[in-house]
Write a structure and sequence with these properties.
Blueprint lengths: L3 E7 L3 H12 L6 E8 L5 H11 L3 E6 L4 H11 L4 E4 L5 E2 L3 H11 L4 E9 L4 E4 L7 H9 L10 E4 H6 L12 H10 L5 E12 L11 H17 L5 H20 L24 H11 L3 H13 L5
Parallel strand pairs: 1-2, 1-4, 2-3, 6-9
Antiparallel strand pairs: 4-8, 5-9, 6-7, 6-8
């Protein structure tokens, strides 16, 4: 039986898929399986997956009609055989000691989850994204909600029993934040967490991905996630205060991207926290305060000036 199950969702990534799979097959740690699930790709991803399945018995390949990343992950979680599970995006690749380092740490520390540093890269640059150390589950949740900690799945090795014993599944109707909600649910059921102080994963920055381009579906996803988190953090806690910050960040995005979708001011209950917020820049605070004062004409002027100056909001 494999000790680790590696889940690789595949959708139209033929350009990078070979590199991704080969980086997994080159691991120094060998006792693992790869679950490839093709979510209705229309490029050559199917042929690539089939060829790798024939080459290595550790690979199991499945195809399905396009149903989205949440459905892919949930299907894969029902298929895995390993004691531990990790997710790898099919346009990324991993370092040769990726699984070895994470497995050794989680076993030595008798932990439920281990996370690591990672590389971010694009066509021109590559840099290390350092993660915080010595954090509790609540610490990580708070930092995820304030955008100071990566909330994705692929730099986190998780004990399989955590989500099986607690019946944790990924929401399938979200176009964004589905990993964040899943990770928060996992973290609330982890007794011990540890950290590998080494970049082991290579994350490809894609400026055309949904993460960088907000649309109505992404806002609807954000509103749903906040609704679920409000139920989970209904009592006064540091997590609840972090949720206030998350709402402020969504207010910021609505102000910047939501106008064309006719979205108006959301979460007015957190307006009183704008001025003292540590997650907003001074410019963002100014825009949100002007919106609160119903001086939207000034907000539009500021945004136009900002765009003209070609600076990041």
């Amino acid at each position: 039986m494999p000790l680790i199950s590696v889940i690789v969702p595949v959708y139209n990534t033929e350009k990078f898929l070979i590199q991704s799979i080969e980086s997994l097959l080159a691991q120094s740690f060998e006792n693992f399986e790869i679950i490839l699930i093709n979510d209705g790709s229309t490029d050559n991803s199917d042929e690539i997956c089939k060829s790798f399945e024939k080459k290595d018995k550790r690979i199991r390949y499945y195809k399905q009609e396009n149903r989205g990343i949440g459905a892919v992950r949930n299907r894969a979680l029902k298929l895995i055989k390993g004691d531990y599970v990790i997710h790898v995006d099919s346009d990324d690749y991993v370092e040769p000691d990726f699984l070895e380092c994470l497995h050794k740490k989680i076993v030595d520390m008798q932990a439920d989850l281990v996370y690591c540093d990672f590389y971010r890269f694009n066509d021109n640059l590559k840099w290390i994204d350092k993660q915080y150390s010595n954090l509790t589950s609540d610490d990580i949740i708070q930092k995820i909600l304030t955008e100071s900690f990566f909330g994705g799945l692929w730099n986190k090795l998780i004990k399989t029993s955590v989500f099986i014993d607690n019946d944790i599944q990924i929401s399938e109707n979200l176009s964004m934040y589905e990993d964040l909600l899943f990770v928060v649910q996992v973290l609330t059921n982890c007794n011990k967490i540890c950290y590998v102080n080494k970049p082991l994963y290579n994350y490809r920055e894609n400026l055309f991905s949904i993460s960088y381009n907000r649309n109505l579906k992404t806002f609807e996803s954000a509103f749903f996630v906040i609704e679920q988190l409000e139920k989970k953090f209904s009592t006064v806690s540091q997590n609840q205060y972090a949720l206030i910050d998350f709402k402020l960040l969504i207010k910021r995005d609505v102000l910047l991207f939501g106008q064309k979708h006719k979205l108006k001011n959301v979460y007015p209950e957190v307006d009183k926290y704008i001025y003292k917020s540590k997650v907003l820049t001074n410019f963002q605070k100014s825009c949100l305060i002007l919106q609160y004062l119903q001086m939207n004409f000034l907000v539009k002027i500021l945004l136009r000036l900002r765009k003209t100056a070609k600076k990041t909001f």
